Amino acid sequence: MTDLSSFPVAARWPAKDAGKLQLYSFPTPNGVKISIALEEIGLPYEAHAVDITKNETWTDEFLSLNPNGKIPAIIDPDGPGGKPLALFESGAILVYLAEKADRLLPRDSARRYEAIQWVFFQMGGIGPMFGQLGFFYKFAGKDIEDKRPLERYANESKRLVGVLEKRLAGRQWIMDDDYTIADIAIFPWVRGLRDFYQADPLIGFGDFPNTVDWLDRCIARPASQKGLNIPSRG
Q: Domain GST N-terminal: where (predicted)?
């Protein structure tokens, strides 16, 4: 029987079945990437809600799993060599899960790295820029009189959507006919920009029909419909 007692996080968020992959997350764009991927793969897992609105990522137990204090993170009881593996950073987790399951990444080596580069495009560009736009447009930053930060992040976010728009021209998914972790990494952030931040007045989504159609296809997938709400906010 798998023993997770060596992981302090398991004391605060105990596993019902320690033999299943343990997901510590919250339904944010970064968080739902992993639940969506797990639903696509069909790997058994347990989801534990780590409430970022209550600063639970800064508890000693969670920091023992991710010293950067961010969701998501996982413990796979059946990691490499059959030993438990703890992992943080959503992009790294996506690559790990895809390789573990031999799903959601092309098998051809060149196309595999092509897909991974789009995951990094999200990690390095879309996530940080869209997140800053949300802060300055919808949250506390909107009260700042100087609108130059908002303009900067709005312009860069629009540029990034434009990059995605060109990539999706004539393609069903980012990797043509293959739905991959590249789509899973990116679409929750585009969804958040459009539906949660309600940034259409700044972005003009009507100018990006390829992106909008792709986003709707991603959202409509059964695994997305389920994973977008895992873990529950309570």
A: 18-105
